[in-house]
Automatic annotation (TrEMBL):
InterPro entries: Aspartic_peptidase_A1, PEPTIDASE_A1, Peptidase_aspartic_dom_sf. This is Peptidase A1 domain-containing protein. GO terms for biological process: proteolysis. Gene3D superfamilies: Acid Proteases. Keywords: Aspartyl protease, Hydrolase, Protease. It comes from Rhipicephalus sanguineus (Brown dog tick). Transmembrane segments: none annotated. Belongs to the peptidase A1 family.
Length: 218
């Protein structure tokens, strides 16, 4: 579900052209997963072809009241709505409590400096702070392999025959929502907060103030 709040009356609205680029070839993921497409919402510097991102074009044409967009991801397959992207605003009905903001550290991806990670009583993760990216296009919470292995040990995850990690309370099997960033070839340790994290926290991306907001999702 995508919706855009508007500060003007319906009679005063005018349609303005915003270009979208269709892809020529579908990869395996597009064939195997039922979705309609991908919308890139990072900063313009990430664009490999120097193409203006959709939300930048929307902001430039002043089609939204605020230069922000926000995500709500349903926590179960039967959730209604299953997910929601708001362009130009925040849906306060989708979260509870106050919004906590962190500053964007570099205007490429939506990245910030995370202070630490804690799993149970173990605080030996992200020691001294670490580079972190919030990415709605990533399924898991990802980090350095050695630290992810220790998190899986803390939660009691065990490898299955398919190399998946699962936990069990003898009734329901849950696959661990963690992956590694070691294969990305970054020069410094990287953490990614993907959909597993964003299902728990309503997330606001603020281009005007260059900050990311988190609040507990309903």
């Amino acid at each position: 579900m995508v919706w855009c709040p508007h500060s003007h009356s319906p009679k005063s609205r005018t349609r303005r052209k915003v270009s979208f680029g269709p892809n020529q070839f579908d990869g395996a993921i597009a064939r195997d997963v039922p979705f309609d497409g991908i919308i890139g919402l990072a900063y313009p510097k990430v664009s490999s072809l120097k193409v203006k991102p959709v939300f930048d074009a929307i902001m430039e044409k002043k089609l939204v009241p605020q230069s922000v967009f926000s995500f709500y991801l349903g926590r179960s397959s039967d959730a209604r709505p299953a997910g929601e992207l708001v362009l130009g605003g925040i849906n306060h009905e989708r979260f509870k409590g106050s919004m906590h903001y962190v500053s964007v550290s570099k205007k490429r991806h939506w990245e910030f400096q995370m202070d630490r990670v804690q799993a149970g009583s173990d605080k030996r993760f992200c020691v001294g702070g670490c580079w972190t990216v919030v990415d709605s296009g990533s399924s898991l919470i990802e980090g350095p392999q050695e630290e992810i292995d220790r998190i899986n040990k803390v939660i009691g995850a065990q490898k299955t025959e398919h190399e998946r990690l699962q936990t069990s309370n003898n009734k329901v099997r849950c696959y661990a929502g963690f992956g590694t960033t070691d294969d990305y070839g970054t020069k410094k340790p990287l953490w990614i907060l993907g959909q597993v994290f964003m299902r728990k926290f309503y997330t606001v991306f603020d281009r005007n103030a260059d900050r990311i907001g988190f609040a507990e999702a309903r």
